[in-house]
Amino acid sequence: MEYISIQEALDKGEGTVDLRGWVYRERGSNKIKFIVLRDSSNIIQCVLKKKDFEEQWDDIDSLLIESSVKISGKIKKDERAPTGFEVKAEKIQIVQPAEPFPITKDQSRDFLLEKRHLWLRSRKMVAIMKIRHTVVGAIHKFFRDRGYYEFDPPIFQPSQAEGGATLFEVKYFKDKTYLSQTWQLYAEAAIFALEKIYDMSPTFRSEKSNTSRHLTEFWMAEMEAAWMELDEVTQVAKNEIRFIIKQVLKHNKKELEILGRDVKLIKHYAQADYPTIKYKEALKIVNEKYGMDVKWGKDLRTLEEAKIAEHFKVPVVVTHYPTEIMGFYKPPAKENPKEALCFDMIAPEGYCEIVGGSQRSLDVKDMKKRLEADGEDPNQYDWYFDLRKFGSVPHSGYGVGVERVIAWICGLDNIKDAIPFPRTMNRYKP
Hints:
It contains 14 helices and 16 strands. The chain has helices at residues 6-12, 57-61, 109-114, 116-119, 123-144, 184-194, 230-251, 253-258, 263-271, 279-288, 302-312, 364-373, 382-386, 402-410; strands at residues 15-28, 32-38, 43-49, 68-77, 85-96, 149-150, 156-157, 169-172, 175-179, 196-204, 217-226, 276-278, 316-319, 342-347, 352-359, 395-401. A hairpin with a 7-residue loop joins strand 4 (68-77) and strand 5 (85-96). The model has no long low-confidence stretch (mean pLDDT 95).
């Protein structure tokens, strides 16, 4: 017997089909049973009449959702069925009858997180995971098609790059080290060999923030390139995000519809130009248009970012943040040292920062001074400063928060649904 997927059966539309999957929904009477079968591709309604299954009827009638079964029968068009087709069952094999499924309607978010291993089977989570698959594949394709090499950094790292307060300390035999916050310092070493590189790797931030936008373990898609300055790297970021969206539209329209996403709006994001403004212009927008009072030198909070994106209604790149609040490796601009050569990309609809990057500093003296001001020991970075001694060149890079991009594209109200098993300050299992 040659089994086909439910989607293949729907595409076939007529004749005999052999299917296998799980009971998604079930209802019926003492004479007829309607089973909505699901597999990874779709769902389809199957009709079983008692007169055709007298010997198996008690077992069929007692089937609960998530029971695994194999069903053979004839498929035909039926507009009343959930996906427009119905299978008149001729044979059924019950592989394993399920126990009562613990997930029912209107469960709390915490309960669904506790049962994440089962909630992954929901149509919502299946749709999100398929879109995630496309997003990750699109990132690889975008960079490989443009001559970038994939380069993998260590996960155990001896020093911080994004702020010591968010480091996860790990016992390392008799010493201690930290889980990676970013690949950046190691990527900067590699660009002198490979010039253009990218990576997809897990990232860890010990942020005590239990919001809908934060995870302690997430995936970052990062790039770094020699000879590249701020204007060029921001354009690469814009092109990458548009490319990702186009790939989702190409492969996942059905999943976007399952999630209730406005496909026309997603198409607009894929085709639109993304503006670039400076931090000082962003302040002017939020203060003058939205009546805020954000002073120069303050980092933009989620509230301000949301208003900026609302103003443009497409992703917007904000550059030249105040140097004093930026990382030690983000250099001051020559024309105005108070402004750093860095950028964030802010997504509309309240999703805010999805990309962050910068041109990289070449001034070892300035970097040491800024590290000391942050309470860090510059001697821990001697290997990094070596990169400025042997043929240094201008270079830039950025990181894309993969889950943030997925959450935005899918229209999720919580980033925890953008990753299979979320880790937060309050959750490290299942």
